[in-house]
Amino acid sequence: MDIKLLPACLVVFTSLFSMASLAISNDEFKTSFEAARQGEWGLVNEDAEKHVLAPYIEYHRLKSALPKLSVDDVKDYVIRNEDTPLAGWLRRHATLAYGAARQWNDVLALRATPPGDVPSQCIWYRAQLVKDQQKAFEGGFKLWLSGESRPPQCDDLFKAMITKGEITDNLIWQRSLLALQRGNRSLSMYLMRKLKGDEWKAPVNFVHSALKNPALLAEVPASVSAQVSTEDVVFSVAIYLTPRKIDDIAVLLPDLKEKAVMNTEQINLVRRSLAARSYTFDREDRPQIIDTILGDLGDADLIGPVLRGAIAASDWQAVLGWIEKIQGDESVSAYHQYWRARALEQTGNEAEAQKAYSSAAQHREFYGFLAAEKLAQPYILNPEAPNLPEGSLDEVSESSAIERIAALWAIGEEGLAVDEWDYTLRRNPSESGAMAELALVNHWPALAVQATIRGKHWNYIGHRFPLAYQDEFRQSAAEYSLDPLLLMSIARRESAFNSHARSPVGARGLMQMMPATAKQVAREKAFTLTDEKALLDSDVNIHLATYYVSSLLEKYNGNLIAALAGYNAGPHKVDRWLESAPVTFDQFIESIPYRETREYVKAVLAYRVIFNTLQGTEVSAVLNPDERSFAQFISSAELQTEGPVTN
């Protein structure tokens, strides 16, 4: 696929950098920026205020002055910088700081409408108590009636509402049931202990007893139903117990339905909750009611676990039966059509199998590619390029937001550049196509990917899959005789090419190395890893990750599926999965118990096909024979009985 380059756009950025650098160089600004972050104002160059990124210095200066900073100063900054995420960040920090200092008038002066995040909402509605109590109570009720624990910023508001009698015992009871429905038993029990009146003893005791003995739900005492809603009590306990005592609820549900102790909506929610936990049973032990519910609902996601179980067990009639029950568009997805074809093939219906493969092969994804391979057809990518109105790219590139993003990228602040980029995309959704093109020609791969996601430009293949960090991947791959496009595919899945990405569990950088794994690899390589921040350096990250991928491939005798699963979930888990692995590679993928890992393996392999195609390399197979063979994990005795081990 040819990607059109726009050199004029690059000239624009050359001029921007020239203007921005007249007063202070990027290196000098970066030093001042770090000093501002640390509050070391004596080290901030006075010329930093002339740099295009001066609002970042000012942001840290104002933030450090809170809560003594005046509301007018905050509002002035917000107005001047409304096209940056900095405006919202400072306003939120000011709200929290004013609230902590109990400066309620400042909270209300800062904004006329409630904020979006819960801590700030609690502060804003607490501040309303000094101005408009009715508005404060209305907001407080919405915040109170939640099954989730609320942050400390809500304590003042809730205490005031309890003192004034606005939060009644009935509201405490309602929230205790909501907490139970959310699985937050500790919060539910804490709230029930607040109910001191004699009239609450029967409902509270009944909940405690039913949690231990679910059979009690079928016969709710009159002393309970006289005080509270029977339906709400039964539903709250049942939905809480479904994942915890699934056998009991599965047996009890028909009786609960017959006695009408829950309404239709509640019954259906419990049914869905039961169906969603079909994976907790072995195929032979699964209660019939769960299969019945799955068939009635026809939901592809809910049927997924039992379908995968049938696939792993080579129960091809069951595979066909479950796919037949799926309702809606998902029934013709590449995934379901591929496995329908596999099952038809295995049961001797070759003609229908070919039709199903042909249907699957129309899709640009892992199973679509496998189906095309089965039919010896080329892979379908259906690439598109942005169709931009004349002048639109220049208009976008000349905006102050893009100027800041370019400067952030230039000083190594890719994380902040991504924040600015995403904020700009959300403010200007119609410009997502132009921004995707702009990112591509300026070699901002993470931003190109982000623009296609925000704009849902799924067919902008060259922008969704930019050939990023090619030299680095090529050099590192050559050291271990690996495919550089495999490494690129891993990085695309791990971080979408955001070299400063950090996951909730601590993985860092381009290829999302866990710090502990990186340290282990560094020791084995005799490589000096200064600290965890070094993993945000793309060269370091690629170097360590490449060695780790190589070691996993060596461990699994070249089996790429096992190596990728190990990279995502850890080799110890993969070792356990391989003990009972199905013989064929596609069945093994579907037998992986972690959804994230299943999707990860399929995505990386599909991305490698796409990158090869974009690079102009002809690809005829998603996996070569060595990459897909599981022969090395099966004993010779099993091999004699199982037959061929590749598919």
Structure commentary:
The structure is a single chain. This protein has 647 residues and is mainly α. Among the domains are: 168-262, no CATH class; 392-464, Orthogonal Bundle (Methyltransferase, Methionine Synthase (B12-binding Domains), Chain A, domain 1), CATH 1.10.1240; 470-642, Lysozyme, CATH 1.10.530. The chain contains 38 helices and no strands. It has helices at residues 7-20, 26-38, 54-64, 71-80, 85-100, 104-110, 118-128, 133-144, 155-163, 169-181, 185-192, 201-212, 222-225, 230-241, 246-258, 264-275, 288-297, 300-312, 316-325, 334-346, 350-360, 366-374, 392-397, 400-410, 414-427, 432-441, 445-455, 461-464, 470-479, 484-495, 515-525, 538-555, 560-569, 571-579, 585-591, 595-615, 625-628, 636-642. Residues 1-22 and 634-647 have low confidence and may be disordered.
Helicity, in percent? 55-70%
Strand content: under 5%
Largest sheet: none
Contiguous low-pLDDT stretches (5 residues minimum) are 1-22, 634-647
Q: In whole angstroms, how far apart are the ends?
A: 30 Å
Average pLDDT over all residues:
91
Shape: flat
CATH topology of the domain at 470-642: Lysozyme
**Structure classification:** mainly alpha
SS field, number of helical segments: 38
Name the features.
Methyltransferase, Methionine Synthase (B12-binding Domains), Chain A, domain 1, disordered C terminus, 38 helices, mainly alpha, flat, Lysozyme, 647 residues, disordered N terminus
